[in-house]
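Thread title: Can someone regenerate the structure for this chain?

I was given the following input by a collaborator and told the matching structure tokens would be attached. They weren't. Posting the sequence so someone can regenerate them.
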Amino acid sequence: MSSWKIFQDHHYPHCVIKWPDSPPWRRFAKNSNNEVLSEDNNSEQQCLEAEKRGKNFILNPAIVETVNAAIYLRRPILVTGKPGTGKTTLAYAIAYQLQLKPVLLWPINTRTTLQDGLYYYDAIARLQDAQLDKEERPDIGHYIRLGPLGTAMYPSHEPRVLLIDEIDKCDIDLPNDLLNLFEEGSFEITEISRLFHQKNAQGNEHQEVEIKTHDGEFRRVSQGEIPCQQFPIVIMTSNGERDFPLPFKRRCLSLFMEEPKIDQLTKIVKTHFDYDEDNPSSSEIKTLLEKFINLRDDEKKELATDQLLNVIFMLLDENKPTGEEKDRLIERLLTPLTETGNK
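Best answer:
Regenerated them for you:
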């Protein structure tokens, strides 16, 4: 019985004395001692992990040129490529190098609408509070929160980096809705705008409304209009599962993320592990690199880079499996994405 296994085949209840350390790219709200962090420290830890993620990204001339063109032209970048090629990590690399605020993430699914990205208005909570007998009720800004897209469009001296992840999963209308927003460079919070016009009609002095952004900061809005000052650096990722309308593609810059070659894979591995090709102790990693390249390029298997990192991490653990068990684990972790798994 191998000591690396936590979940055993005997199925007897047992306590785990020490949980294994997580991979560097899969650390969440815990510190190095595996202690749960406070809310403030958690936020700081997340920023550090995002910074490390961006720092380890491997750049190439095509990426650098496209990002620079997007910054100058104020255009979003439509990034396509196979899973595991670093499409989402590009956003964190831009924020890291340009020392911008944390990346605003907007994940897309089939039900996502433009409104979801702009702002959320809790009309039910406002109605419930209005029915309560209170001398002072919160103003309308208490019930509005900007989404990641709305926060990215809020006026600021420096652009925000907005990651619209897996946009190819969106509803058919979302690309055109985004197109109009990016062309206009502004949007309206209808509820605040309506209140502004009502107060003007009544001759009342209108007060600014304070609302919360997607990342928890408070910002003031007066007439409901959110005008863009610095156009955000927008990264839209796609796995190529669908095509987009030509007017939408025309207003984007296209970037295809190629699968990393052996030299790039070596650099990626070095950013996460203590790997030196000339060191005999690293021979196992070199063998895995060659096996991965052979499966992906020669045998045309669909493999993602993080699968290679997963294998290396498991085999470098102090309680790593050995013998036939190790071979089975490697085969299981390197299961092609188009297959259902090994028995």
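DSSP finds 13 helices and eleven strands in the chain.
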